[in-house]
Amino acid sequence: MGTAAGFYFLSSLVLSAAIVVIVLSVFALSFFRVLASVRQERKLQLTSCCVAALSAGIVLGICASAAGRVPVNFGIPQDKVTAIEGVLLEDPRIISGGRALASLSLRRSAGGSLRVDSGGEITVFFSQDSAQRLRQSGRGTAVFAEGKLRSSDSGYTFSAESLHVVKRASPVERMRTSVRLNLIKRFDGKTWGGLALALLVGIKDNLDTNLAAMYRDSGCSYILALSGMHLAVLAGLIAFFLRKPLGLKLSALTGAAIICLYCFLVGPMPSLNRAALMYLLGVAAIIGALPREPMSILALSFLIQITLTPSAGNSISFVLSYLALAGIFVIGQPLYSLAAGKVPDILLQPLSASVGAFLATAGVTCFAFGVIAPVGIVTGLVLVPLTTVFMIGSMIWLVLDIFSISGFLNLPMSLLYRLMEKIVSVSGNVPAFASAKPVLILTLSVILSLLILIPEYKRRAGLLRLQPFKT
């Protein structure tokens, strides 16, 4: 909590504020420990540790926020920049009109006869003529582009009119790009191929834009963003095939290696990295290196990711990913406990998780997009199981296609695709709530969350009072 507060709310504080926090934490730690040693009260000892942890978290958040803000420095006046050189930080994405979009790590800028060293990250739009060539080059390729620099409130963009490959990516990166291109080629021509690529490896170049819009309107766009749900399908298959022959611990370690290779293939995605990091921490818990506490693992994952990749913390997918999972743990599980026995378990489990994630993310979603779609809670109950079946079917199709015996799956996969398309189409026609006041939505979601948490707290307190009589 301290790190999140420091990163998102206190990042404008100067270094002196961080020093004050450290001094106060040391003072509180010393004071409470002396007091605790006199009174021997465990609560005071716990309070001292919490104050110190909160203060350290705030300082870490402030530092991570500062590290995540890397300003773009061209080295020459912006209006003089006519060309840039840098390294592709991600796989180029094909956008409308056949153009390509990618993030570039600047190395040099040029204008006229000047060529100077530069730094920072910039978004580059490449022409349709360069898109296919760039797509085959992939992440890690050094390029030189001539064009026009544009400035806006969200940062700098560069519209490239010409492209020159300065240096090819490393052999490992080229092999990775080759695998991705092979996957695109194998799914090419399938009506359901674009959705399969988006769900399996996060490639949305071939995804029908109308389908993506329907997912967004139905409140289910999270299904298209690789995250814990998609990783859970992969982890489930790994456990299914490896747990019996290898045992729990060895299969978990093997699964961790496969997950790392999968994340390398997919590329840097904040929500997927969060899920993968939590999986690795879960493996550490299985082998006894960490306690098996879901919220502790989630918090540790946040601390590690915000420290190693502070720029990811500014991504909306990063924020929503952590908030959604925290909502499942903090709100969804109490809701499940309150309704247990009153609603069939097969329905209650996904429903409580969906409600918890929705309430936790409602305020941020409204702030970022100006609209929220509660219908997504119900739609997700149907769409998530179908998506799981669709993903497994796509994986089976890939394996069978190696031996050219995948043809019999084309019809079932097409029918499943049409069914999912119909569901999001109908759901997307349900009116969403548009609000220009995200604070109002946030307040309402907090009130609804308290209406769940307070009764559950009272119920647990009552059980604790009755426990001595039961024993």
Show unreliable segments.
none
Number of helices: 16
Mean pLDDT: 84
Rg, alpha carbons: 25 Å
Helix proportion range = 55-70%
Strand order of the largest sheet: 1-3-5-7-6
What is the H/E string? HHHEEEEEHEEHHHHHHHHHEHHEH
Distance between the termini: 37 Å
- How big a fraction of the residues is strand? 5-15%
Biggest β-sheet: count, sense, barrel? 5 strands, mixed, barrel
Principal-axes geometry comes out as globular
Please provide the count of β strands: 9
Give a written overview of the molecule.
The protein has helices at about 1-10, 15-40, 40-70, 130-135, 170-185, 195-200, 210-215, 230-245, 250-265, 270-285, 295-310, 315-340, 345-370, 375-400, 410-430, 440-470, and strands at about 85-90, 95, 100-110, 115, 120-125, 140-150, 155-165, 370, 435. The model has no long low-confidence stretch (mean pLDDT about 85). The strands form two sheets. A five-stranded mixed β-barrel has the order 1-3-5-7-6. A two-stranded antiparallel ribbon has the order 8-9. The protein is an alpha+beta fold. The chain has three domains: about 1-70; about 80-170, OB fold (Dihydrolipoamide Acetyltransferase, E2P); about 180-460, no CATH class.
Sum this structure up briefly.
By secondary structure, this protein is of the alpha+beta class. It has helices spanning 2-8, 15-39, 42-68, 128-137, 171-187, 193-201, 209-217, 228-246, 248-266, 270-286, 294-308, 316-339, 345-369, 375-402, 410-428, 438-470; strands spanning 83-88, 93-94, 100-111, 114-117, 121-126, 142-152, 155-167, 371-372, 433-434.
